[in-house]
């Protein structure tokens, strides 16, 4: 088994390599496995009926949601732990602390050691394509297999906003930094959580698949850089990656980039216009009638494929 990556020769419009062609790597398209397929496969491997597996799956999901919203870090057997967190702006005076400082709520998944080791030891196969789309080379990666730590992602961001490293490293401690609630371990949930299958997307096209009620389609969101960005619908409800959005709905983007940088947003590989107002860049697009990939780069760099046209 191997992770598939493609390196495509693309023209650089910005950055220090502007005006030149560079090979940019991105994940190959992975299909989204449906919950029904995962349950059927789990039933076959465990020897229980599909109905029993479905009941266990649903019950575990309800337990995970209940405990996580009470502030627990909930164990997902064989996978890791899940907890809720948040991003919020910092203020100098206690008199200025209010709920409006919260910019987004987060679901934080921390993989266990076995899962990280599995990813670390999985080979990466890279297929190279020239600017005309012709395959020119294949490479098997020999990188050291470093896996990012979700507890330390983000760092300090613009406008005093707290990044991932401030959201409580030790999950056995009480809430610290910007995060409220207890970080005590929950119990064994008895099954895997509700997200089924890989959501790795093809940055150039239609990763994500039809899901939910008729007319709802999955929106996969990738965020790059140390700035801040939020994605909302017309009712100002925040949209998270892999949420279902109704076809034809407007999706609104707000980005506060790293100082001196101009952010970039792309929908299915096509760049959309962002308008600046007092340091905040905003834009919107209409949800297509198919799975959609949104990329937001708040700190464009020549190695980030989100900045390519």
Based on Cα principal axes, name the global outline.
Answer: globular
Radius of gyration over C-alpha positions, nearest whole angstrom: 21 Å
In DSSP terms, counting alpha (H) and pi (I) runs of 4 or more, how many helices? 3
Strand order of the largest sheet: 11-9-17-13-14
What does this structure look like?
The model is unreliable at 153-213 and 302-309 (pLDDT under 50). It contains 3 helices and 17 strands. A hairpin with a 2-residue loop joins β15 (275-277) and β16. α1 crosses α2 (50-69). The chain has helices at 35-46, 50-69, 113-120; strands at residues 2-11, 21-27, 73-76, 80-88, 102-111, 123-129, 135-140, 185-188, 216-224, 228-232, 243-246, 250-256, 264-267, 270-271, 275-277, 280-286, 292-297. It is mostly beta strands. A 5-stranded mixed sheet has the order 11-9-17-13-14, with no helix packed on it. The protein is globular and about 60 Å long.
How would you briefly describe this protein structure?
With 309 residues, the chain is mainly beta. The chain has helices at 35-46, 50-69, 113-120, and strands spanning 2-11, 21-27, 73-76, 80-88, 102-111, 123-129, 135-140, 185-188, 216-224, 228-232, 243-246, 250-256, 264-267, 270-271, 275-277, 280-286, 292-297.
């Amino acid at each position: 088994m191997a992770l598939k990556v493609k390196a495509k020769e693309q023209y650089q419009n910005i950055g220090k390599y502007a005006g030149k062609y560079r090979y940019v790597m991105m994940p190959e398209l992975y299909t989204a496995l449906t919950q029904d397929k995962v349950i059927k496969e789990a039933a076959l491997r465990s020897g229980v009926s599909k109905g029993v597996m479905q009941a266990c799956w649903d019950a575990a999901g309800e337990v995970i949601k209940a405990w996580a919203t009470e502030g627990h870090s909930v164990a997902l057997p064989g996978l890791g732990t899940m907890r809720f967190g948040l991003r919020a702006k910092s203020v100098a005076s206690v008199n200025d602390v209010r709920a409006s400082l919260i910019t987004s709520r987060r679901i934080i998944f921390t993989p266990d050691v076995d899962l990280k080791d599995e990813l670390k030891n999985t080979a990466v196969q890279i297929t190279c394509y020239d600017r005309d789309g012709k395959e020119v080379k294949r490479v098997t990666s020999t990188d050291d297999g470093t896996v990012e730590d979700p507890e330390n992602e983000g760092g300090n961001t613009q406008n005093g906003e707290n990044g991932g490293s401030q959201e409580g490293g030790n999950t056995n401690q009480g809430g610290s930094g910007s995060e409220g609630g207890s970080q005590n371990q929950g119990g064994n949930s008895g099954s895997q959580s509700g997200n089924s299958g890989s959501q790795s997307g093809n940055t150039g096209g239609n990763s994500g698949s039809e899901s939910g009620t008729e007319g709802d389609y999955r929106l996969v969101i990738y965020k790059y850089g140390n700035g801040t960005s939020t994605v909302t619908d017309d009712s100002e409800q925040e949209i998270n990656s892999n949420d279902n959005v109704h076809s034809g709905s407007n999706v609104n983007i707000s980005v506060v980039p790293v100082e001196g940088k101009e952010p970039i947003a792309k929908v299915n590989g096509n760049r959309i216009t962002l308008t600046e107002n007092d340091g905040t860049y905003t834009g919107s697009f209409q949800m297509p009638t198919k799975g959609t990939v949104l990329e937001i780069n708040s700190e464009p760099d020549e190695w980030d494929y989100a900045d390519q046209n």
